[in-house]
Design brief:
3 domains, 401 residues, elongated, alpha/beta, 5-stranded mixed sheet, Heat Shock Protein 90
Length: 401
């Protein structure tokens, strides 16, 4: 049973109203281009359907298609697939009309013009070269589009970084006065308590005033640490240093603690190595990468009934590498998303929450450090979604040099 036209896939399409010619073309091109899928049809409407399903097809079109014109058909194809390339073929040779037809075909976008009878080996070579050019064109355009979007995103992040830097500065000034006044008040209350002889007043100070002041001072210190983490996160710094992974985890905890508590998530840190775990790279980039993975795990729980909710960061070493596994017991990732999870602009979040660049940037950061990242989905024997980062250890890196 023939598959519906919309289900067909190929790398090239041959359109000719002569069915005998199509059978010869199928045999010759299949032999000359092994591994390259071809589509063969005498119906222009079917060719248009192919164009809707695959913008990378190379077309080989006969100029005369009964009462229709192959050049016009190609024009219709380009309305659907603007970057489609075509090689025109014809059995009409010689005379003024032939010259006009050839000129028209090439001026309307044809990349070649071939006469029948076809020299199949030569046609196959030309098709192979043009197929490579098509792939190169699409790959180049995809890269340009990806880079453009990433530059736009980077510009937005830079703007946010400037705003955060300004906010941190503005918040720090009054915070300094608040902390100083609280610490002064604490000293004063402690002195009053020492000199006070009234048991009821001392009890009030011990049970109410001192705990409140102590908690307030601790709260201010937490805000200060959060502001320092924000400054480190957004600071445009390209310095490469030896980085202690435990310090990175501390910064990430500070940056994500509010949402972790809000979602009632338990965050566990497991260090299985008895030796220091240092890597070489940019500290801010690594904080960004780990924070992104943790935030994705937090978002995965939203709207689910998963309980208890757990995120676990495990640090270990394997040979000369640090292995950092960030796992969560949230929902399994769908296969379609899992297959493309590190591709740019893939996101399941709303436009306000996600751009689809996060994990692509994470992978870029990991590879820039000489490492890599893989995702392991939930399976029958694995009850966690895991992101496993492998990065060369710093001291082994120095020793190898």
């Amino acid at each position: 049973m023939k598959k519906p036209a919309g289900e067909e896939k190929g790398r090239y399409c041959v359109l000719d109203d002569d069915t005998a010619f199509l059978e010869v073309a199928r045999g010759q091109l299949s032999e000359a281009l092994p591994g390259v899928a071809g589509l063969f049809t005498a119906d222009p409407e079917v060719a248009l359907t192919y164009a809707r399903n695959d913008p990378r097809l190379l077309y080989v079109i006969d100029i005369r298609l009964g009462d229709k014109n192959g050049i016009d058909i190609y024009h219709d194809i380009t309305r659907i697939s603007p970057r489609a390339r075509v090689i025109f073929i014809t059995g009409d040779t010689g005379g003024i009309e032939y010259g006009r037809m050839r000129e028209k075909a090439l001026s309307r976008g044809g990349i070649d013009f071939i006469e029948k009878p076809i020299k199949w080996h030569e046609l196959a070579i030309k098709m192979q070269n043009h197929l490579k050019l098509i792939e190169y064109q699409f790959d180049l355009e995809d890269r340009v589009e990806e880079r453009t979007r990433m530059l736009i995103h980077a510009d937005r992040l830079a703007t946010v970084g400037t705003m955060v830097s300004s906010i941190v500065h503005e918040v720090n000034s009054p915070l300094t006065f608040i902390k100083a006044n609280q610490e002064t008040s604490l000293l004063a209350v402690q002195r009053i308590r020492t000199e006070c002889g009234d048991p009821e007043t001392r009890r009030l100070i011990d049970e109410t005033i001192l705990p409140g002041l102590t908690d307030s001072i601790q709260g201010v210190r937490q805000i200060e640490e959060l502001l320092r983490s924000f400054r480190r996160f957004y600071k445009q710094e390209k310095t490469l240093t030896a980085i202690d992974l435990l310090s990175i985890i501390d910064d990430v905890k500070t940056l994500t603690i509010y949402n972790i508590r809000k979602q009632a998530i338990t965050l566990n840190i497991v260090n299985r190595s008895r030796e220091p775990l240092e890597v070489w790279g940019n500290k801010q980039e690594l904080i960004q990468a780990v924070t992104n993975i943790v935030n994705n795990a937090i978002d995965a729980f939203e709207g689910t009934g998963v309980k208890p909710r757990r995120i676990e960061i495990t640090l270990d070493r394997s040979d000369d590498n640090l292995v950092m596994t960030i796992a969560n017991n949230g929902p399994k990732i769908t296969q379609e998303i899992a297959d493309n999870i590190f591709q740019p602009f893939l996101t399941t979040k709303s436009e306000e929450k996600g751009t689809g660049l996060g994990l692509a940037i994470v992978r870029q950061i990991m590879k820039g450090m000489g490492g890599d990242i893989v995702m392991r989905n939930k399976q029958d024997d694995r009850q966690l979604v895991e992101f496993v980062c492998t990065i060369p250890l710093y001291r082994d890196r120095k020793r190898s040099k």
